[in-house]
Specification:
- The protein has eleven helices and 19 strands.
- With 433 residues, the protein is α+β, with helices and mostly antiparallel strands.
- It folds into two domains: 292 residues, Zn peptidases (Aminopeptidase), CATH 3.40.630.10; 128 residues, Alpha-Beta Plaits.
- Strands 3-4-8-5-9-17 form a six-stranded mixed sheet, sandwiched between helices.
- Strand 1 and strand 2 form a beta hairpin.
- The relative contact order is 0.19.
- Keywords: Hydrolase, Zinc.
- GO terms for molecular function: hydrolase activity.
- This is Acetylornithine deacetylase.
- InterPro entries: ArgE/DapE_CS (IPR001261), Peptidase_M20 (IPR002933), Peptidase_M20A (IPR050072).
C-alpha cells in the first residue's frame, strides 16, 4: 500500500470533521418537510423533489419516478394493495463507477411516523442542543439518508473514484408496514450487489430483522338485560382474558433464545403490544348493557422463519392452554383480521462478504468491537432478503425517541456513520486508479 493510500482514511476523517456543518444543514433541510405517512396516502412529494434537486447538484445521475408508473409494480410478489401513490414519488440516484467493481445501494425511506402527542416544539423546525439534532424523522431515518449522501460527497470532493457504482434511493411509504416504495424500487430495476439500509441501529450492524403482524382481534357476544333469565356473554370479559394471556405469553417468549446465528446469543422480549381497545356504542352518552363486540388491536413481533399463519396459530393455541379449555368446550374464539401487510423476518447469510468489511470499518471508526446481531425491530429489509437477490444489511446512527416526542439524532454518531459509509464504499466498490 502506497503512502497516499494509507492517508486516505485520514483524509476522509478530516473532510468529515470540516463538513459536519453541511451534514447538519442537509439533515435539517429534509426535516423541514412534512413527510408524515398517512397510512393510505402520504405527503412526501415536496421533500422528494428537493432531494432530487440536491442529488443532481451533487453530480449524481438522479431520477424521480412514481411507483404506479413502474411496469411490474403490482405484479411484484411483495406488493400490498390498498395504497394511493398518485402523488408520492421515489427518488433514486447513481454515482457511476469506472467499471470492474461491486455495486452498493443505500436504501432509505423518506416518510415518517405520525406526530405523536406531547411534542413541545415544532417537529418540523429542527434545532441542535447538546450535540443532538431534534426533529421528526431525524433519527428514523432522514439522518441515515443524509449520511449516505455525505459519504458519497466526501469521496467525490476528495477526488476519489470508485470502480463499482454507488446508488442512493429514497423511497416512500415504509412506515406502518408500507414497503411498497421499496417494492417499486426493485420493480424499477434499482439493484446492486449489496444493500445498506440506514435505519437507526446505534452504530450496531444488523444482518437480520424481526417480522411482525398488526391484527384487529374481535370477540363477539350477546347484550341486553337478563330479565327473563337470558344468558349473556360479554365480549369485553373475553377480551380482558385474552389481554392477560398476551402479557403472560410475551413474558414466556422472553425466556427463549432466538434462531441462530443472529438471535441465539441472547434472550429478549419479543413485543406483543395492545395498541387500541374498542367496545360499546361510543356515540351514546350512556351505556347500561354490555357490548356486542370488543376489538383488541395488537402488534406482535416474531423471529425470521416464522410465517403469518404460524404466528397466529401460536396465539390461538397458547390462549387455549392459558384458559384451560378449548374452543370446542366453549372458549370464545378470537377472530384475527389483518390491518397491514405481514412483515416477514429476514436474515443475511453469515458468510456474506460485506459483513466483515462493515464490522472492521465500525471498529476502526469507533475504536470498539462492532456489535453484530439481529435487529430488535421489523423493517423493509425483507423486500431485499426474502424477494430479491441483493442482500441487505442494516446500519444507522445513534439517537432516541423514534416515533415519539422529542425525536433526535446524535450528531457525533452521524459523523462516525459518514466515515463508515465512505470507507466501506471504497473497500466494497474498489478504488479506481
Amino acid at each position: 500500500m502506497s503512502g497516499n493510500e494509507r492517508n486516505i482514511p485520514v483524509l476522509i476523517r478530516d473532510w468529515i470533521q470540516l463538513n459536519r456543518g453541511r451534514m447538519a444543514d442537509l439533515l435539517s433541510t429534509l426535516i423541514r418537510y412534512d413527510t408524515v405517512n398517512r397510512v393510505v396516502t402520504g405527503t412526501e412529494k415536496e421533500c422528494q423533489q428537493k432531494l432530487h434537486e440536491l442529488m443532481q447538484e451533487l453530480g449524481l445521475e438522479a431520477e424521480l419516478y412514481y411507483p404506479e408508473e413502474v411496469p411490474g409494480f403490482h405484479e411484484h410478489p411483495a406488493y400490498y394493495p390498498g395504497k394511493d401513490y398518485s402523488d408520492r414519488p421515489n427518488v433514486s440516484a447513481k454515482w457511476r463507477g469506472t467499471g470492474g467493481g461491486k455495486s452498493l445501494l443505500f436504501s432509505s425511506h423518506i416518510d415518517t411516523a405520525a406526530i405523536a402527542p406531547g411534542w413541545e416544539t415544532d417537529p418540523f423546525s429542527p434545532f441542535v442542543e447538546d450535540n443532538k439534532l431534534f426533529g421528526l424523522g431525524s433519527y428514523d431515518m432522514k439522518g441515515g439518508l443524509a449520511a449516505s449522501m455525505m459519504a458519497a460527497r466526501c469521496l467525490m470532493e476528495l477526488g476519489i473514484k470508485l470502480q463499482g457504482d454507488v446508488l442512493i434511493e429514497s423511497v416512500v411509504d415504509e412506515e406502518f408496514g408500507g414497503a411498497n416504495g421499496t417494492v417499486a424500487g426493485r420493480a424499477h430495476g434499482v439493484t446492486a450487489d449489496a444493500v445498506i439500509i440506514p435505519e437507526p441501529t446505534n452504530l450496531a450492524l444488523y444482518p437480520a430483522a424481526r417480522g411482525g403482524a398488526l391484527w384487529r382481534v374481535t370477540f363477539r357476544g350477546t347484550t341486553g338485560l337478563s330479565f327473563s333469565g337470558e344468558v349473556m356473554q360479554n365480549p369485553a370479559n373475553d377480551a380482558a382474558r385474552f389481554i392477560v394471556f398476551l402479557e403472560k405469553h410475551e413474558q414466556e417468549r422472553a425466556d427463549l433464545a432466538g434462531p441462530a446465528p443472529w438471535y441465539s446469543d441472547r434472550k429478549e422480549q419479543l413485543p406483543i403490544i395492545v395498541t387500541r381497545l374498542e367496545a360499546g356504542d361510543l356515540s351514546s352518552p350512556l351505556c347500561d348493557v354490555g357490548p356486542v363486540e370488543c376489538h383488541v388491536d395488537i402488534w406482535v413481533e416474531c423471529y425470521p422463519g416464522v410465517s403469518e399463519d404460524q404466528l397466529r396459530e401460536e396465539l390461538l393455541l397458547g390462549y387455549e392452554r392459558f384458559s384451560g379449555r378449548s374452543y370446542e368446550q366453549g372458549l370464545a374464539r378470537p377472530e384475527f383480521n389483518k390491518m397491514i401487510r405481514f412483515l416477514p423476518g429476514c436474515s443475511v447469510a453469515p458468510d456474506f462478504p460485506l459483513l466483515p468489511i462493515l464490522a472492521e470499518e465500525i471498529e476502526s471508526a469507533t475504536g470498539r468491537k462492532a456489535e453484530v446481531t439481529g435487529a430488535p425491530y421489523a423493517c423493509d429489509a425483507f423486500v431485499f432478503n426474502e424477494y430479491g437477490s441483493s442482500p441487505a444489511l442494516i446500519l444507522g446512527p445513534s439517537g432516541g425517541n423514534a416515533h415519539a416526542p422529542g425525536e433526535f439524532v446524535d450528531l457525533d454518531s452521524l459523523v462516525v456513520l459518514v466515515e463508515i459509509y465512505a470507507t466501506s464504499m471504497l473497500r466494497w466498490c474498489g478504488r479506481s486508479t
